[in-house]
């Protein structure tokens, strides 16, 4: 199997560049599931063309680490998982997937792959914590920045096809049952989750306000359990805004940001002061926000014509379902090209000496690697504490999006060891930033030491072009 890795790796950069546009292209061309048989087979082959490349690249990156680091049992486990996943996919690369039986077998392998890598982040965190004497924090940050972004893409590709598979198969079965009984079925116009706005794992009309409310309830439960008080959230701005995005990604980001805000206001004695969340939709009119020349503005990678894949080879055609197309166009008409979400708290802000470290994995991961969550949390008494008061990563299914991938995505979605403790492994904020940046967004911080903090989350709708960034605050402390 080793000889395949250089071949796959050489294709990685080109594949990765077009990935964002491919997902957006699928959303533009396919419409909601179910797919036709040919379209589902095309999706399987397209997924197969990408995943071995990405897995091989991750294997090579792990090999490039110092030998003593890779020898750590936790890091070695992750290395073995990637080798296992690549070897499971290689038999499918010998010829195209041409039958539904082959597609079903392939999808089962994908589901196993997603499940196998569910706990990659906490396992790697422990491995790097134990190997901190042999690798610098800068090298850890560099490796994890690349690894986490690649992992997000790999999971997204796999989960997108798995979702399309289950939604299509479920609809076919429902239609077949209706035909045999002579009754009409509405399953052709809605996904199994009951919402026709889904395309795989992408919700083309995702409402951030609903996600924020659900996440706030979940985090408030944890705060009440730990502190005996329940902070609140007030949502203002444009709460009816919708846009196309991956709900799981937004839920993760919002939950991590609310964990920090809630604990900050509680420990500052301001738990009666609500965390104010403002939602603003970016206008479709490009003249409202003329380009500023800022290189950090939201720009998708530019792909030349020769590098871009043939759209006909990627489009997954659907049977003629005008009702689905009309519903899709209606959802898109009212969806914003991008959304800015501001979270404002009265938690006292972040100590200036710690401000430059909040995005570093080593800042919280290496401070108390062997401490239990309860003991380590006792040392974090304010926003300047070493472990940054990050609650452990969510693992509970508090989500309101009932999707076929719910069990896969949330059974171990980058989770830490437990869902109710306060002090996590310190990957919450860096991983949130990775999720935000994956589709061209970002997270910015305005800090007022002694008062509170504003966090700006800017997200671009999947498959949408944005002429310029809606807002870019200064990240310096005040």
What is the overall number of helices? 17
Largest sheet: 5 strands, mixed
- Principal-axis shape: globular
Strand sequence of the main sheet, in spatial order?
A: 3-5-6-8-7
From the helix content, strand content and strand pairing, which structural class follows? alpha+beta
H/E element sequence: HHHHHHHHEEHEEHEHHEHHHHHEE
Cα-to-Cα separation, first versus last residue: 54 Å
Radius of gyration from the alpha-carbon trace, in angstroms = 22 Å
Number of strands: 8
Low-pLDDT ranges = 1-18, 184-194, 289-323, 365-413, 415-423, 465-478
Overall mean pLDDT stands at 74
Helix proportion range = 40-55%
Strand content: 5-15%
Summarize this, please?
This protein is of the alpha+beta class and 478 residues long. The protein has 17 helices and eight strands.
List the helices and strands and how they pair.
Layout: H1 4-10, H2 12-30, H3 37-63, H4 67-70, H5 73-89, H6 100-116, H7 120-130, H8 137-181, E1 198-199, E2 202-206, H9 208-227, E3 233-237, E4 243-245, H10 247-267, E5 275-281, H11 311-314, H12 322-333, E6 338-345, H13 352-355, H14 361-365, H15 373-377, H16 406-411, H17 428-438, E7 442-448, E8 452-460
Parallel strand pairs: 3-5
Antiparallel strand pairs: 1-2, 2-4, 5-6, 6-8, 7-8
């Amino acid at each position: 199997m080793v000889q395949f890795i250089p071949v796959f790796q050489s294709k990685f950069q080109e594949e990765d560049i077009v990935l964002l546009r491919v997902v957006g292209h699928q959303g533009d061309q396919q419409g909601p599931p179910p797919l036709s048989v040919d379209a589902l087979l095309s999706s399987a082959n397209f997924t197969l063309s990408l995943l071995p490349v990405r897995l091989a690249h991750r294997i090579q990156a792990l090999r490039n680490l110092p030998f003593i680091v890779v020898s750590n049992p936790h890091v070695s486990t992750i290395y073995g998982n990637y080798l296992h996943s690549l070897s499971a996919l290689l038999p499918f690369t010998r010829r195209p997937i041409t039958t539904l039986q082959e597609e079903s077998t392939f999808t089962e392998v994908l589901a196993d792959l997603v499940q196998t890598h569910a706990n990659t982040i906490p396992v790697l965190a422990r491995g790097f914590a134990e190997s901190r004497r042999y690798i610098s924090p800068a090298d850890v940050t560099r490796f994890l920045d690349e690894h986490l972004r690649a992992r997000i893409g790999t999971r997204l590709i796999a989960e997108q096809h798995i979702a399309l598979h289950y939604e299509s198969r479920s609809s076919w079965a429902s239609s077949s049952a209706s035909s045999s009984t002579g009754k009409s079925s509405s399953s052709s116009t809605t996904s199994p989750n009951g919402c026709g706005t889904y395309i795989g794992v992408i919700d083309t009309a995702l409402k951030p306000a609903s996600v924020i409310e659900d996440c706030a309830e979940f985090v408030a439960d944890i705060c009440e359990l730990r502190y005996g008080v329940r902070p609140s959230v007030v949502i203002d701005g444009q709460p009816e805004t919708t846009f196309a995005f991956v709900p799981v990604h937004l839920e993760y980001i919002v939950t991590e940001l609310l964990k920090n805000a809630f604990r900050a206001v509680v420990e500052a004695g301001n738990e009666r002061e609500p965390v104010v969340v403002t939602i603003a939709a970016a206008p479709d009119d490009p003249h409202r926000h003329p380009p500023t020349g800022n290189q950090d503005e939201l720009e998708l990678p530019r792909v030349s014509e020769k590098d871009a894949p043939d759209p006909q080879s990627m489009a997954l055609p659907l049977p003629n379902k005008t009702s689905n197309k009309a519903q899709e166009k209606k959802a898109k008409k009212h969806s914003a090209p991008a959304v800015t979400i501001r979270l404002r708290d009265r938690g006292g802000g972040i100590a200036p000496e710690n401000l430059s470290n909040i995005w570093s994995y080593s800042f919280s991961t290496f401070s108390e690697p062997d401490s239990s969550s309860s003991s380590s949390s006792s040392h974090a008494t304010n926003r300047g504490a070493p472990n940054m008061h990050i609650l452990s990563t969510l693992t509970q299914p508090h989500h309101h999006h009932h999707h076929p991938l719910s069990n896969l995505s949330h059974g171990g979605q980058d989770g830490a060891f437990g869902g109710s403790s306060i002090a996590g492994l310190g990957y919450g904020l860096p991983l949130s930033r990775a999720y935000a940046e994956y589709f061209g967004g970002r997270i910015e911080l305005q800090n007022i030491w002694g008062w509170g903090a504003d966090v700006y989350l800017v997200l671009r709708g999947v498959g949408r072009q944005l002429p310029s960034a809606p807002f870019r605050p200064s990240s310096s402390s005040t």
